[in-house]
Amino acid sequence: MYRALGVAIVLGSLLASERIVGASEHENGLLVKIVDLERKHGAMCMPPGGEADLRSPLALLTNDIAPESGLGKGGPEEVESLNHRIFNQAGIRASADLKDPCNLLPSRVLERKQGYCVGIAALYLVLAEQLALPIYAVATPSHVFLRYDDGTTRINIETLQGGANVPDEQYVREQKIPEESIRRGVFMRNLSTDEFLAQMHNNLGVVYSERKQYDLATNEYETALDLDARLPAALYNWGNDLLREREYRKAIRRFSKSLRLYPTDVWALNNRGLAYGKLGKREKARRAFEEALRIDPGFEQAQRNLENTRSRP
To answer: pTM (2 decimals)?
Structure first.
């Protein structure tokens, strides 16, 4: 099981991070970096007419926003205006297919009018950058949503529900996000431009992993962690690849690093237990499966693995 950030339904952030705003052609702008990312990886989802470039359709999307749209009137009106432009006028809808790179690359999301949370967030953020609006990406263990935060007004934007304002507590409750991880800024903080790009590189890594192109996947996970060292999903996914390639000690190191950031991740505990078992470390494997079951008593795979560990001579 790989972890692409794309499924789920925001919590009060820590202090706001770097704003994703400014001139689109600035060398550190999100649009410039995404155009470069799409140029490097666009072959995995090539449009019928050849190479895609987000800049032209984005300019049309920006120019079509009417003066009376609500921009410049404050948080709620601005959020409502962007939600209407992206989800109603542009017709962007949510997709649950995390393995399709076309649902990740924003130029393809805009053309095909569908994407999962990271792809829709990328499109939304570059539009916000053009309009100099204080909108950020925010990550949970398995999802990315958006947040308007001008220092006074904070509004959550759920991209899988047409921009609905989902309460912070709902994300925390439904995903059982540990307070320790929130306090350390692993989850629920406003992401900088580079930290959001780390989410995109992690998801690109998942696509390559699913295709068994593990060297390319490793490059993406390394890039993601260079951009955001507090990204447990990249460590977890990298550990899964190493487990499949029978690099058990290396896999354990990745899972252990991931668990230091996200200690209640039952899948990382389970898979670390599998790696320990492959090395003949039955007691460590048993403890890993038991810890996963302590957190989630209904975790059937960990229960089966624990029973296998106990029954094996």
So the answer is: 0.88
**Nearest-angstrom CA–CA distance, 187 and 279:** 32
Domain-wise residue ranges, the chain: 30-183, 207-311
CATH number of the 30-183 domain: 3.10.620
Is residue 135 pLDDT above 70, yes or no?
yes
What CA–CA distance (Å, rounded) separates 71 from 253?
48
Q: Supply the mean pLDDT for the chain.
A: 88
- Selection from 239, 245, 242, 248 nearest residue 267 by Cα: 239
Q: By C-alpha distance, which of 128, 127, 97, 129 is closest to 115?
A: 97
Nearest residue to 164 via CA among 94, 69, 102: 94
Pick from 247, 251, 241, 204: nearest CA to 223: 204
Question: Using CA atoms, how far apart are residues 138 and 157, in angstroms rounded to an integer?
Answer: 10
Q: Is the dihedral of CA 257, 258, 262, 265 positive or negative?
A: negative
Q: Which fold has domain 207-311?
A: 1.25.40
- DSSP assignment letter at 98: T
Pairing relationship of beta strands 114-115 and 93-94 according to DSSP bridges: parallel
pLDDT (average), residues 225-244 = 98
Over residues 41-76, the pLDDT tens digits come to 988 988 766 666 777 667 666 665 544 455 555 679
